[in-house]
Model the fold of this input.
Amino acid sequence: NAGVTQTPKFRVLKTGQSMTLLCAQDMNHEYMYWYRQDPGMGLRLIHYSVGEGTTAKGEVPDGYNVSRLKKQNFLLGLESAAPSQTSVYFCASSYGGTTIYYGYTFGSGTRLTVV
Amino acid sequence: SQQGEEDPQALSIQEGENATMNCSYKTSINNLQWYRQNSGRGLVHLILIRSNEREKHSGRLRVTLDTSKKSSSLLITASRAADTASYFCATEDDSSGTYKYIFGTGTRLKVLA
Done:
């Protein structure tokens, strides 16, 4: 089925370890976003991309890096994980101008625990 | 910074009743969207209302927008147990063409059978 796929779904990291979260979409969407969701905080934008080869910082970018080497993939990296990065991470994508009609398509999330 | 704030934070109703949740935002907007999130899942887009619209319907959903009060409401009529979820409003961060949306903290709706 077409949509946004996130891998892995669950992960436990030790403080200081690194990892990469993968987001893949097969809808030919130009725009892709990484959000984190914490209890009582709603969703906060980490980084986003408006096209292949471009990335930009969102509201809470510190401690994360991203890459968009291929249009369909958006990678979120944690170079040195910290307990404060324990969260549920969501990837979303949209088709540019039609975002205002159809909104975002979200992945099912990655639950990350840093111990 | 949080653009949208939903109210109430939690709501519990009986099946068949109507559920109303509100969203307040801080700056002028082009449009406002509502999303639903079932437990442990991603968000699903429900409905969008533009700044020049006052009311919009989609099935059992009714959304209103009052730009003078910077607020929106989502009404779910004849609620069902399957409507149990969290509901978020989202407003566009700016008009730079990046279509960045800022989400509120959500309303947790529980519909009792």
